[in-house]
């Protein structure tokens, strides 16, 4: 049931603080270490891994892009992220030293399942991140990490995404500690930071009325852009997908530095550009990219960390997320974008929970 919410999508956005807490805290032992009951990878097996592939579709693929960042940073193993429907036709180099991480909310996406089987045949070890216990992908994997998001009904994925990101951080922390590539203090610090993201997501949700105003300002446009750098580029991709699928506004995501290599030609008077500026080390850069589009007439909406008021000089509207370690900002930055897409869809009278042409689980190629 929708438990009093107008749509499942809104309900599921609101369930994210709980999803984050459940996925993390139920897996911490009394001493605060991550215990992963369904992952049997030994230290020796982990030492043997020379490469990781993350394979998924759609929103799960975007979570994988964040996962790459976490694994490369903490575990220091090279990671490639691929769209499942491309992976198996490319004949990727996969062997018994490859770990393939499959990400799928439903656990039934056909292309993703086929990629799993392809990699398995080549000898890879398969670890899946899924939300559905006993799904095909869970059953065919060597190791399973369940996102404890609860059932996701709305076609547009929201709480699955944030819990997938948390799952990646936990897997990366777990591996890094086991392999001795991260000291315990840093490990504990990051876990504490992840714990705090749940309350911070709630703080974002509590400011929803500001996001309604942003939605009203852009709802009549035919197209728009999302800009970000580093982890914020991944969020831009996910924000763009949400906007397209529920509100039918054509949006595109750009790595902000890439814009001037062609696509900036599309910016016209009033074109909405949502710039995500959560990464401290890239803050000045993204602000200057916002300036570039502003100078060409764009209507700029910025998503920034509290206190970084400098964005107000370049943005027409600003939404502040609570202060957060840049490393973990992806858990937060997506939430205002989910809500903006939701409100645009509602304002336009779209069928939010069942957008046209879409199915919840894609079991055809
Ligand atoms: C977008 C969305 C899709 C799914 C994709 C993969 O909101 O829901 O892009 O993320 O179809 O689905 P799963 O995760 O079930 O494999």
UniProtKB/TrEMBL annotation:
Active site: 360 (for fru-6p isomerization activity)
Localization per record: Cytoplasm
GO MF annotation, one: carbohydrate derivative binding
Enzyme class: transferase
Any one GO CC term of the record: cytosol
Residue ranges occupied by any SIS domain in the UniProt entry: 42-181, 214-355
Entry EC number(s): 2.6.1.16
Metal-binding among keywords: no
UniProt keyword annotation of Cytoplasm present: yes
GO biological process, any: UDP-N-acetylglucosamine metabolic process
Keywords: Aminotransferase, Cytoplasm, Glutamine amidotransferase, Repeat, Transferase
Assembly description: Homodimer.
Function, in words: Catalyzes the first step in hexosamine metabolism, converting fructose-6P into glucosamine-6P using glutamine as a nitrogen source.
Protein's name according to its UniProt entry: Glutamine--fructose-6-phosphate aminotransferase [isomerizing]
Organism: Peptoclostridium acidaminophilum DSM 3953
Residues of the full protein shown: 244 to 608 of 608
């Amino acid at each position: 049931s929708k438990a009093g919410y107008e749509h499942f999508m809104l309900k599921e956005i609101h369930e994210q603080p709980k999803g984050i807490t459940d996925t993390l805290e139920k897996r911490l032992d009394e001493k605060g270490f991550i215990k992963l009951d369904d992952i049997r990878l030994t230290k020796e097996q982990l030492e043997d891994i020379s490469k990781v592939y993350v394979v998924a579709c759609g929103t799960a693929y975007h979570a994988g892009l964040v996962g790459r960042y976490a694994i490369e940073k903490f575990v220091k193993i090279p990671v490639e992220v691929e769209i499942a429907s491309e992976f198996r036709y490319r004949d990727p180099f996969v062997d018994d030293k490859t770990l393939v991480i499959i990400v799928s909310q439903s656990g039934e996406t056909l292309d993703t399942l086929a990629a799993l089987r392809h990699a398995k045949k080549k000898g890879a070890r398969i670890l899946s991140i899924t939300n559905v216990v006993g799904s095909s992908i869970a059953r065919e994997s060597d190791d399973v990490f369940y996102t404890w998001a609860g059932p996701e009904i709305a076609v547009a994925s929201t709480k699955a995404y944030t819990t997938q990101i948390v799952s990646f951080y936990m897997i990366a922390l777990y591996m890094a500690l086991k392999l001795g590539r991260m000291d315990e203090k840093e490990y504990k610090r990051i876990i504490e930071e992840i714990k705090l993201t749940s309350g911070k997501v709630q703080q974002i949700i509590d400011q929803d009325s500001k996001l309604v105003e942003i939605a009203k300002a852009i709802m009549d446009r035919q197209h728009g852009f999302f800009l970000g750098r580093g982890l914020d580029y991944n969020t831009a991709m996910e924000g763009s997908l949400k906007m397209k699928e529920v509100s039918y506004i054509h949006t595109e995501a750009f790595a902000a530095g890439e814009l001037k290599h062609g696509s900036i030609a599309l910016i016209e008077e009033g074109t909405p550009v949502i710039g995500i500026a959560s990464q401290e080390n890239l803050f000045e850069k993204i602000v200057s990219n916002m300036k570039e589009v502003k100078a060409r007439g764009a209507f700029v909406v910025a998503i920034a960390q509290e206190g970084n008021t400098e964005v107000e000089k370049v943005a027409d509207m600003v939404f502040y997320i609570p202060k957060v370690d840049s490393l973990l900002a992806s858990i937060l930055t997506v939430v205002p974008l989910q809500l903006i897409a939701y409100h645009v869809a509602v304002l336009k009278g779209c069928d939010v929970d069942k957008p046209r042409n879409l199915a919840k689980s894609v079991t055809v190629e």
